[in-house]
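Case study.
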Amino acid sequence: MRGQDDRQAYDRGTSLFSPDGRLYQVEYAREAVKRGGASVGVRATDGVVLVAERRIRSSLLEARSIEKLHQIDEHNGVASAGHVADARQLVEEARQTAQIEQLSYDQPITPEQLTGEVSEHVQEYTQAGHTRPFGAALLVGGYVDGTPQLFETDPSGTSYEWQATAIGGNSDEIEETLESEYDPEISLDAASSLAVSVLTEEEEDDPETVAVAVIDDDGYRTLDREEIEDLL
Amino acid sequence: MRGQDDRQAYDRGTSLFSPDGRLYQVEYAREAVKRGGASVGVRATDGVVLVAERRIRSSLLEARSIEKLHQIDEHNGVASAGHVADARQLVEEARQTAQIEQLSYDQPITPEQLTGEVSEHVQEYTQAGHTRPFGAALLVGGYVDGTPQLFETDPSGTSYEWQATAIGGNSDEIEETLESEYDPEISLDAASSLAVSVLTEEEEDDPETVAVAVIDDDGYRTLDREEIEDLL
Amino acid sequence: MRGQDDRQAYDRGTSLFSPDGRLYQVEYAREAVKRGGASVGVRATDGVVLVAERRIRSSLLEARSIEKLHQIDEHNGVASAGHVADARQLVEEARQTAQIEQLSYDQPITPEQLTGEVSEHVQEYTQAGHTRPFGAALLVGGYVDGTPQLFETDPSGTSYEWQATAIGGNSDEIEETLESEYDPEISLDAASSLAVSVLTEEEEDDPETVAVAVIDDDGYRTLDREEIEDLL
Amino acid sequence: MRGQDDRQAYDRGTSLFSPDGRLYQVEYAREAVKRGGASVGVRATDGVVLVAERRIRSSLLEARSIEKLHQIDEHNGVASAGHVADARQLVEEARQTAQIEQLSYDQPITPEQLTGEVSEHVQEYTQAGHTRPFGAALLVGGYVDGTPQLFETDPSGTSYEWQATAIGGNSDEIEETLESEYDPEISLDAASSLAVSVLTEEEEDDPETVAVAVIDDDGYRTLDREEIEDLL
Amino acid sequence: MRGQDDRQAYDRGTSLFSPDGRLYQVEYAREAVKRGGASVGVRATDGVVLVAERRIRSSLLEARSIEKLHQIDEHNGVASAGHVADARQLVEEARQTAQIEQLSYDQPITPEQLTGEVSEHVQEYTQAGHTRPFGAALLVGGYVDGTPQLFETDPSGTSYEWQATAIGGNSDEIEETLESEYDPEISLDAASSLAVSVLTEEEEDDPETVAVAVIDDDGYRTLDREEIEDLL
Amino acid sequence: MRGQDDRQAYDRGTSLFSPDGRLYQVEYAREAVKRGGASVGVRATDGVVLVAERRIRSSLLEARSIEKLHQIDEHNGVASAGHVADARQLVEEARQTAQIEQLSYDQPITPEQLTGEVSEHVQEYTQAGHTRPFGAALLVGGYVDGTPQLFETDPSGTSYEWQATAIGGNSDEIEETLESEYDPEISLDAASSLAVSVLTEEEEDDPETVAVAVIDDDGYRTLDREEIEDLL
Amino acid sequence: MRGQDDRQAYDRGTSLFSPDGRLYQVEYAREAVKRGGASVGVRATDGVVLVAERRIRSSLLEARSIEKLHQIDEHNGVASAGHVADARQLVEEARQTAQIEQLSYDQPITPEQLTGEVSEHVQEYTQAGHTRPFGAALLVGGYVDGTPQLFETDPSGTSYEWQATAIGGNSDEIEETLESEYDPEISLDAASSLAVSVLTEEEEDDPETVAVAVIDDDGYRTLDREEIEDLL
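After joint prediction, the assembly is written out as follows.
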């Protein structure tokens, strides 16, 4: 009981460290990320694939409207997990950042720069007193200057670069599978199959249950139903 | 008792996550939406119909003044549910957004864009520290460039696209009926009948108890008493 | 006791929903409205009448100074109930709104527009964190372009249009009487008699205990003592 | 005990209504008004008299410095009661308001306008979150365009017009006396005698214990010791 | 115990009245004034004298640096009591006020005006929510246009005019002595002796233990050691 | 238990001192620094080396993305420890500071100036009320005008200059080793070996587990895998 | 226990007085000053000497970086005690103040003016609601226009002028020694010896354990190791 009471003393303000140096509100925001469906990203030699789980609660719901894949600009895309409305704010932040970079320097923003800017924005919400952290994580995939890149930003505002990873519900299990099956020399087609398979593993193979976007030399593109079926 | 006390530790500030990653104030705002009458939207091949329940507490009340249907611009309308004054603020926000889009780009805003902008506004009220979420949900129906669309925004600031759906009191039961009776090839007339019937099901067939708006190639239009009677 | 304690957990901040989606501070503000004297409004075919109860606590008090009838512009008037100083702020807000409309568009504001603007102002005080709701309700009566209209705005910021209604102490009983006695084809003279009678019902027929204003084709006008006596 | 605890739940923030619609901080500010000496105002046919009690705690204190009578402009004066420093702020507010009116419209402000402006200022301090109400009440007496007027503003920001009244300690008893002795056709001289007598009733007739100001066709003027003695 | 608990409910915010209309934080600030040494002011026919106690805690301390006498301008001086750093802020406020008056109107500010401005500043710190009252009181002595004046401002922001008075520790006892010994026709020299004697009464007659300033036709001047010795 | 309760009274606001003059939130932020991997800096006669531990939790993670070494400008680098997102904000602050100095004075900023500016920024977050301290420490190494310098800034905003030191987890043990092995006349190559060895002591000698940057006459440079292997 | 609880009621906000007129947060900040090493200042006839204790926790730490002596301008220096990062902010404040004075009036600021300005800044942090006091004290020594001066500013924002004094840990004991050994006619050399000896009394005579700065006709200058050895 004591431990419970002690924790409650520090977890009700984003501006507070606990005695052992933890930020509980940030950790709870990570729980919010785990509550939603998973998203997966895999970097191939010739591009990046982003796949997001679709949890369609009604046959009348247009699946595309709850999709967690978002084009940021011609060369970058995002897959989100966690609190949907929070993720949308970060996607808008990312789009504006990309647009400003393009306008300012007349060159596309790299996934690394994009993730860095968004992560700083996310961090600020963990330190200011009158707000809460974002309850969402993003995978940022991009292909700029012939280089495919895959990044993650989490609710603390930390960014990571991955060869392949997953965010959201079940992400730990999916990451284990990716670690054993990923090959750095993988092609974008094989990467797409891998990403879809790790996400649908435990579900029936219904192309409607996932959304897929690839970013390669031709830019950002979402796959249609037939293309997804080919991957299953 | 413990569970009760624990919850109370996290539900009295919009800027707080609970240890399991939930935002209680947003969930309570969803309860506010459920407290009011229901609104229904159905998308047909040639338009969208919005229907709202009227709970007339006095014979001296002008029914139109408590109507939950609002024209946004020539091509878009909104049906609301929940806290009436909160909904009105969102409707004003939507109108201004539509007007700015029209003035800036000289073309009508689509329901999708409109819902996106309003949803971002709603999300901000769930993250800032000195305010509360909006206790209202909206159905946004529109017909732009020959495309009928139906969207929902909820108190978390999440948006969904629907073929047909309901918000407010009893919305779960209404959605079940819609799922079994909706046909994607439905005409606007049939959609109007369907929407009215699912809402009035348990009440006597009084045209005064519902308000109906259709948005099609001719724009936004509310039905008069005789037209509603024809639908019953 | 539990229920009492639970409620107290949510009713001490305007920015908080209770678990069942209620805004307690707004409900308490409605209680503030009930604490004062009643005001009545009746819409006739040729105008609107507003009548307010006068509770004169001293023979030395100038009755007109505690009157709850206020002219807004040439064509609109307000009857208030509840916290007097809060009502005065709303009346000032209404006057400025009317003046701005007149100056901007060179046409008088309608009661509907006026009530809408004031209601939005009232709603904002229910959502911001560092203030309280207004403890006052208004009846807005007006006659613009040959159309008489009667509106109400309450502490939540919701507006209603009425044929006839009452706000403040005893308003429920008065509304019941109005429902049984109101006739939509009523003339302004008959409406004035009705409004005065429902308010003075239980008191001696003293013209000093009520204030009466009529708004018709000739604009806003308050009745003098003899005119009120004729209505008794 | 329960009642005590319940009240304490609502009386420690100016932005809170209690469940029965009361604003406790405003009521406590009214208590602050009662803690000080009384002030009396009486309207005559040809002017207004303001009288304030002087509680001289030391023979070395200059009585005029604790006087609660203040000239606002040539035609208006104020008698205050309650928290002295709060009253002074309101007097300054009144002076500035009068000056602005004079400069803007080149005509003197009436007591009614003056009281209205000050009352709005007072109300705002009862609704904003980071301040407290003013612990002072004012009597505003003036003589503009041949019309004598006497107003009161209280800590809630409500204003009243009076023929004669009292504020501050013992004001209820004084008002009773005024009600029985006041005659609307009273002359300023008789009004002055009445005002002084109701205030000094229970004290020895020492001209030092009261301050007297009259406002009539010749403007605002304070009486000297001999003039006060003549009134006793 | 109950009383203790009740008081604690209201004394921890400057923006709160207690149920009986008191402002506890202001009363506690008055205690802060009582904690320091006393200062005395005496008005003579030809000037004003200010005397402040010096509590020299170390022989290495330069007595002048802890002096509580401050020249404001050529014609006004201040003696302070209470929290030293708070007093210094008020002295700076006074100096700026005097300078602005001089620059704006090309005439010296009177002690009365000066005290009024400073008192308003002090009052504001008792009403705003995010600050505390000043824990200091001032005696303002001045000689302008041939008129000597002595004022006091206290932590509530109230000002008083005195013939002679004391602030700070032991001020009640000193005031009693002053009341019995003060003569309105006193000369500045006699006033100086009186002021010094009431302050040093209980201490050995060490000229180092007091600081003395006189303000007369020649302006503000502090006395040197010999001059003080002459007064003992 | 008492001690525990007492501490909790003061550790939940950055703006509070405990009775013994401690700032608990700053101390907890130091714990956050200890929770991460260690970073080491060693100053040689001809440059500075910074080495950071890499904790690679997955084989799919790009090690460079979690590196805690950051180039600030041509002549300065930073090694961080603690909360990663907080550190990144400080690195950005450092970069902007360096850029502004370069632009303003057309000369590179020294490590001392750089650390001073960042430390002031860090201190402000320990004193303001609506934020929390930074949960990160930095080592700043630079080589400007032929002078190598190594500084540290900690969560309190204090800066230190070192010959060699460590921050983060295990830093106390590493510092002990450095104290016994450091020689002020050490060359950059030897310093690099020393820094790597103290960090990898308890781990297998895997060049992937550390990142190394040197700053010397040629500016800032990170070592590649082979160069690190040579140091092991 | 009661006393403990009572104190805790008032010591957790800088904007609160306790019932006996104390500011606990300021008193706790004074404790923070006592937690660090001591600094000593001695005024001689021909200059001022400042000496600060060095607590070197590691042989690798550059002693000069933790020095508590800071040059402010050519003619003024500061020795600090207490929270190091807080002291640094005050030093920066002092430097800017000196620079502005120099630029505005083309003459050096005196130690008295400098201390006054810094003290006002410090006081403001004891009165505003959203911050904490500075946990640092300063000794300000200067030599302007042939006059040596030594001042202290403490966490309350009070300033004192001294012939000789100490701040920080053990300062009470050091002050006692200074009182018995100080001679107003002391030369700067003798003052330097005195200052060093009182600080190192209980430690071995290691010149590394103290830092010494003198300010005389030639301006501010720190002593090197040999010069300090000569003083031991």
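Observations recorded in class. Chain G has seven helices and ten strands. The domain at 2-231 of chain G is CATH 3.60.20.10 (Glutamine Phosphoribosylpyrophosphate, subunit 1, domain 1). We will return to this complex in the next lecture.
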